[in-house]
Design brief:
CATH architecture of the largest domain: Alpha-Beta Complex
Helix content: 25-40%
Strand content: 15-25%
Oligomer: single chain
Largest sheet: 9 strands, mixed
CATH superfamily of the largest domain: Spore Coat Polysaccharide Biosynthesis Protein SpsA, Chain A
CATH topology of the largest domain: Spore Coat Polysaccharide Biosynthesis Protein SpsA, Chain A
Shape: globular
Number of strands: 13
Order of helices and strands: EHEHEHEEHEEEEEEEHHEHHHH
Radius of gyration: 19 Å
């Protein structure tokens, strides 16, 4: 099976210098690519001089995660893409379990390994942990991570299991499926576009799988920190994008409930004097309104929609019932 490990870079020379050696060392069976999103540092010069065996693809602008990968992947020939964040350290034999699943389970289109915290290697990392799920109002969460509660890795997720979405931090997808689905939705720019892609894949009958026999270590927030208001904007807006495009059922009733909860989140930010985050939610909603006509067109173009993977409210379970761990939901 021909695998391409593809790293998207934007002004990330230091991260490439730090983490690319582990990718090179433990990925001998794969071709390694770096797609550069018009970096203004000397990332490209560094790559060409220090890692001549890495193929560099240069985009002419920074179109974010979605457009950056869409443009670059058109130039890569492989059966399976591994979209890998530049702030990830891979481990020995990390690719073998992944290849095994793709070869044995032909309906599997997307796969995610175990994602652990680079700085606390016995804990799961926020961005993906042991595989993603989504609740009835479109809130994403993971095995091993619900909101900001991270579980310690004690082998409880060393399995191979179906999930709803795979993390974009380390995202394996068959090229054929990526092309069939039209790649990432570029209106997302960054954040949650992988959830949208997985949702569309599941609506088409493909399987999304987690494999705990493969593991990587992620710093998280190296490109855009969780505390940055822009990330708040993207997460609130793009979650609404996902719902309108893909959710089954009375969509405007679902959106109204989300608006109420988003309002509660805004009040919390105000109480904490996080005014930029409060304003980010307001901007997210106005951006959502501006994109709504196009989102509704995309919704109509998807004939078959599946129900939510989880029918409970993770917000209620976590904040009201104080259920902090996946197994207690």
């Amino acid at each position: 099976m021909k695998i391409a490990v593809v790293i998207l870079n934007w002004n990330g020379k230091e991260l490439l210098e730090r983490f690319l050696p582990s990718v090179m060392k433990f990925s001998s069976e794969a071709d390694i690519y770096v797609i550069d999103n018009a970096s203004s540092d000397n990332s490209v010069t560094f790559l060409k001089s220090s890692f001549s065996e890495v193929t560099v693809i240069q985009n002419n602008k920074n179109g974010g995660y979605a457009q950056g990968y869409n443009n670059g992947l058109k130039l890569i020939d492989a059966e399976v893409f591994c979209l890998l964040n530049s702030d990830i350290e891979v481990s020995k034999n990390w690719l073998e379990p992944v290849v095994s699943v793709f070869e044995k389970e032909t309906d599997t289109a997307v796969l995610q390994p175990k994602i652990l915290d680079y700085n606390r290697k016995d804990y799961f990392e926020y961005a993906g942990a042991a595989g993603g799920f989504i609740d009835k109002l479109g809130y994403p969460y993971c095995r091993g991570r619900i909101f900001n509660t991270l579980e310690k890795d004690s082998g409880q997720y060393n399995d191979v299991a179906p999930i709803f979405w795979a993390s974009g931090a380390c995202f394996f997808i068959k090229k054929e499926v990526f092309d069939t689905l039209g790649g990432f939705d570029e209106s997302f720019f960054a954040h949650m576009e992988e959830i949208d892609l997985c949702w569309r894949a599941k609506n088409k009958g493909y399987n999304v799988v987690y494999n705990g026999k493969s593991q990587v270590y992620h710093i998280g927030g190296a490109t855009l920190n969780n505390s940055h208001p822009k990330k708040t904007f993207l997460n609130f807006r793009n979650s609404l994008f996902c719902l309108v495009k893909n959710a089954k059922g009375p969509i405007f009733s679902i959106i109204f409930k989300r608006f109420v909860l988003d309002g509660v989140a805004g009040i919390v930010f105000l109480a904490q004097l996080k005014l930029l985050h409060f304003w980010a939610i307001i901007k997210a909603h106005f951006s959502f309104y501006a994109h709504l006509p196009d989102l509704l067109k995309k919704r109509k173009s998807t004939k078959d929609k599946i129900k939510y993977y989880q029918k409970t409210s993770v917000v209620w379970s976590y904040f009201v019932n104080k259920k902090r761990y996946f197994k207690s939901l």
